[in-house]
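stuck on this:

***
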Amino acid sequence: MMTDTTELKVAILRAGISHDTIAYKLGIARETLWKKINNITEFKAREIMLLQDILHLSNEERDSIFFSQIGDK
């Protein structure tokens, strides 16, 4: 599965939270977050759960973003 990069970026903008803050809350480096957002590496299940809470995503939004069949690079 790949992350829908465009949809994730929209969710981050909508939440008004910086990448630095998200990386801190996930316990990862900003560069690591960038790699995950851009499908270079995958998000772990724990990170997806935290992001759902941080970005206030519904289950449907979470699934659409993180369990995309095609992905968006």
Summary: The first helix runs from residue 5 to 15.
